Amino acid sequence: MSLHLEAEILELTTRHPFLIARGGQALHHTVWVRVRDDDGCVGWGEAAPTTYYGETPETVLAALNVYAAQLPHDPFELEVAERALKNALGENPAARAAVSTALHDLVGKRLGVPLYRLWGLDPKATPISTFTIGLDTSDKMRAKVLEAEPYPVLKVKLGTNRDEEILRTIRGATDKELRVDANCSWTRKQAIRMLPVLEEFGVTVLEQPLPAHDRDGLAAVTRAARMPVIADESCLVASDIPPLVGAVDGINIKLAKCGSLREALRMIAVARAHGMMVMVGCMIESSIGITAAAHFTPLVDIVDLDGAALLAADPFVGATIDRGRIVLPSGPGLGVRAR
Prior knowledge:
Elements: E1 3-20, E2 23-37, E3 42-47, H1 57-67, H2 78-88, H3 93-111, H4 115-118, E4 131-133, H5 138-147, E5 153-157, H6 163-173, E6 177-181, H7 188-200, E7 203-207, H8 215-224, E8 229-231, E9 250-253, H9 255-258, H10 261-273, E10 277-280, H11 287-294, E11 302-303, E12 316-317, E13 320-322, E14 325-327, E15 337-338
Parallel strand pairs: 4-5, 5-6, 6-7, 7-8, 8-9, 9-10, 10-11
Antiparallel strand pairs: 1-2, 2-3, 12-15, 13-14
């Protein structure tokens, strides 16, 4: 059997410009990857590149040209495939994650079972997903909170010179649980100074308050915090977890930064071995990429998989969010279909 790789760029637009401390926009490009076998069965994956991790849609396409020659003859050789891709071109995690997802989707389709069944997981054990309120004017943020009415937990982006005003605006518009992501934007002093402010507004989780390299600073913030502190940009792959033990309470897994579904499962195992919380997050991506991550959410504590829910028009249908809870599709593989 031989496998063939196809790819095309997807143009995705969010309902509002999606802004974080590093900037943002409404127009986003991902890459739809398809791996086809000789019998005509096709597995789907999606690369959600970000320049923060050194990828663009163009670098993804270039990497896929290399990875196409590394595909296994047997799609079930998932471990072999992962090693081959990484040995051929070691970075490019979003591109590798797309191929990994497509191979897993293909295997699930050939067996006729969803990915969560391959992993022995209970689809009813999925946690509630947050819905992200990106940076904006006060009026627009209040409007976003109203639009997010079906979602019981909100994630608030901070990292500006008006962070307290943002929290006051959002808390004035809702009494829902709030979690905060500062996207590396605070200094150690700022973060510690913000902790009582976060408590005042009822924030329950703090994600990546400091620059990625500042583990000592993260440890100081974690010691001072009464809420869990989660590492995102500080934790890309499983080998990043042991140095973070004691510095943070948990880690955030994203397929676009870890490089494969198998690495995501390894990260969960390593974090659990160290008694750490596990979160899964996403980029702005369609239901292909969101659903791939959604299949292992029964294993995690915190879910932030709203990337497709933020879109003006998602070209695919996969995992959904019902009253905040992730609902996994029952179809084989990813269970994703074109809209």
